[in-house]
Amino acid sequence: MNKFDLGGVxxxxxxxxxxxxxxxxAWNEAPGKEIILNALGRHRIHFPPSGTxxxxxxxxxxxxxxxxxxxxxDYRFVGVxxxxxxxxxxxKLFPEISLFAENGAxxxxxxxxxxxxxxxxxxxxxxxxxxxxxxxxxxxxxxxHFFTMMPALEGYWENTRADEGWYPDxxxxxxxxxxxxxxxxxxxxxxxxxxDSALISRYGARNPEVFFFGTPLNDL
Length: 220
Prior knowledge:
single chain; globular; 9 strands; two-stranded antiparallel sheet; alpha/beta
């Protein structure tokens, strides 16, 4: 059994164990996070000079802290994660960031309150990804922006599997595995407009198919 196997525990217990054992540290350096940072930096001109940003599935908040230090120092930052362990650790590490242990598909936060939503490798682990993306739409301001990543069959499995469904990824984590078109439908059904993947490739993405950036209005 590798370190990401569920081993008979629930998904919630599994991720509590990940953070208790500090196995999340490798995720903090995931190369795809650089793509999100690059995109935020390149499009900063389209954001309010000060505003609000939320990370859904924030873990302990390392990505939020990097965005604060490197891209948007005048923003207010909020993170949501269902792991009590992750949020407790994050509050100690980054007391200046507001962190909440909540279900990212049904938060207690007010609607239309965030200029930017980011989420890295989280929506594929929700029992109902469509519901989670609908919550993201609810949280976004009308002129907001979102920057998300989740594995798509075309860009992650390297054509080793082509079947959609709930099964472990290459590391053993259980998740929803959908095609790019399937993931796109969740965004579009919630009135979200996606940028073309050719644009995302300019940020250094080797697999632009796994990044879903856009706005509730027209594409940039």
